[in-house]
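Checklist before submission:
- one chain only
- standard amino acids only
- sequence pasted in full

Submission:
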Amino acid sequence: MHSFPVSVVMPAYNRADLIGATLASIFSQTLSPVEVIVVDDGSQDGTVAAAEAFPVRVLRRSNAGPGSARNAGIAAATQPWIAFCDSDDLWQPRYLETMAAALKPDSRYAFSNWSLVRGDTWAAEDRFSMAPEGFFEQPAEPLYPKLLRWTPVWPSATVIERSFLEEIGGFDPRVSRLPTEDFEFALRCNEHPGAVFQKQPLVGIRKHEGNFSAGQLRSMVSDIKILRFARDHHVMGRLHAAAIERTIGERTIGAADLAFRSGSKKLFRELARDVPRADRTLAYYVKTILAQPHPLPGSIFPHLVRRS
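Returned file contents:
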């Protein structure tokens, strides 16, 4: 086989400095895709010109977020399989070949292992090696409950059957503006059993100042919003509502703590209101008072303030 019946769909926004290396990694595959579709999401730089240096189809649209851009690429695709690749990530030359070999006759979607890339350096530790014990066991069961707490899924390391995408509704535009919008898609995709995992880390996720999800705090807050959305709108979200509530509580505590340590007092106050009452420690109350715009003298330890 010299080609894989797959359309590569790439959302792009102001990636003129990075998209060339990404496309070069795609066109260096040992098993070639049939087509590469770049969906320019309203870029204001030279992204389109950089993309058109390669034999790609470029779709131009006004900025609506990466999920909506992927949906536009899916609608324009001609092949039965879709491989997503963000415009700042990288594929090793054997990525598509290895993914094609990993698919079983009844497979509908597959995820590859990946590593972080900073500059030109690929991290020695890969994502799958960080998995909680037993995470990859029972592959015949839906992965949804496990993804609530930890996820190895990344768009640039996903190959999925187009008909399956159409069945689950693609990417939900209601969350397309959130930094971790792909988390919602990963959850909904994995309401269905049969995920295939390719364990070689053949995808590089580049970390740089321009990453939409680079800010840890912003990503944590986004994940909380995604979990609430999943609880209210996913079939398995309703089934696992109690587990989602616990996860939301844990993540809210973590995000509030990071907001306080980062000096983001307004965000801390917003998050602190949602910390479960059972988890509100003395430290929580002290931080809540310290985070007020103008804490009054004695408001923390009133018994130490001399009464007139």
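Reviewer check: The chain has two domains: 3-208, 217-290.
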